[in-house]
Design goal:
The chain is an alpha/beta fold and 130 residues long. It is built from three helices and four strands, in the order βαβαβαβ. The protein has a domain of 75 residues. A four-stranded parallel sheet has the order 1-4-2-3. Strand 2, helix 2 and strand 3 form a beta-alpha-beta unit.
Amino acid sequence: MANQYTMQDPTTQYPKLDIPEQRQDEPGLDTNLQPKADHGEETYEGHNRLSGRKALITGADSGIGAAVAIAFARPSWSWCSWCKRTKHWLQTNQVSILLTTGPTNPRRLINIVNIAVAYSIFLGYSLLYD
């Protein structure tokens, strides 16, 4: 069995999956995928390397953003979130959540970063925003 310190070919290192090509109108939804997307809810095995870290993660409602949010949540982080599916998973796994909502425009994003900094400094929370 190979380890993380041995150089490996990533195209042959993992099992091949037989997943049919799928197309959706924009925006595509994970809920319409067959088989369902694996964001690591049950399969990701963390090593606490992210413990105590802070992050602002966007797009956490699906895809890579959801997988990153779940990976970061493994070390028992606290979060601000408005991603309903990711929020549900985080709550089920006893990760604290505060909610923030709003449109994604430059002014709102500046406000979100300010909120993330304030929560991080004063309450120890990290921010998850989509």
